[in-house]
Amino acid sequence: MGRNVKDAQFITTKALPAAGASNQSTAFDLGTRSGYLPEGIDAQIILPATPSLVDTKSVTLTVQDSADNASFAAIASIATVVVTGTGGAGASAVTRTFRLPDSTRRYVRVNQAVDGSGGDNTAVSTTFQLLF
Fold first, then answer.
1. 58 lies in a domain?
2. Cα 102 from chain centroid?
3. 96 is in which domain, residue-wise?
4. Do the Cβ atoms of 131 and 4 come closer than 8 Å?
5. Does residue 38 contact residue 77 with C-beta atoms inside 8 Å?
6. How high is the pLDDT of residue 33?
7. More confidently predicted of 32 and 99
8. pTM for the full model?
9. Domain for residue 125, yes or no?
10. Among the four residues 24, 46, 115, 128, which has the most C-beta atoms within 10 Å?
11. In a domain, 1, yes or no
12. Confidence band (pLDDT; 50, 70, 90) for 131?
């Protein structure tokens, strides 16, 4: 993984959507970095505990990219993060760090989706950041 240097302009938080919905973080424009080389950048997702997540229901976080900041698609080589409620206690916190592949397009964001009937998790916010 990279050197894990943070840049405040590449850190964003977004509240989870209501059950049965999805939303997206602010997209980062990698073209604003001098000497842009995506393969030298790590993407990190931090999801705190989701105590209201209903048993067997999931929160799914997917890193996406775009060439035009309008049409986004999942970055296939980066694993989707899925947490599932269990034992009446929701799901534990999770942090995942992924190296961006050299084929990553200019804009990156995280899409977050909560299963229908997944409970009210809107008080929980995901942090998405790039590490250099």
1. yes
2. 19
3. 6-131
4. yes
5. no
6. 64
7. 99
8. 0.92
9. yes
10. 128
11. no
12. very high
> What is the pairing mode between strands 42-47 and 73-74?
unpaired
Residues in contact with 59: Cβ distance below 8 Å, sequence separation at least 6, in sequence order: 16, 47, 50, 53, 82, 83, 91, 112, 113, 114, 115, 118, 121
pLDDT over 90 for what percent of the chain? 83
Ramachandran class of 90: left when φ > 0, alpha when ψ lies in -120 to 50, beta otherwise: left
Tokens linked to 36? 């842009």
Long-range Cβ contact pairs of 28-33 (< 8 A, separation 24 or more): 28/107, 28/108, 28/109, 28/130, 29/69, 29/106, 29/107, 30/104, 30/106, 30/107, 30/108, 31/106, 33/132
Query: Which percentage of the chain shows pLDDT scores above 70?
Result: 93
In the numeric block, which tokens belong to residue 80? 């989707």
Show the tokens assigned to 93: 């916190």
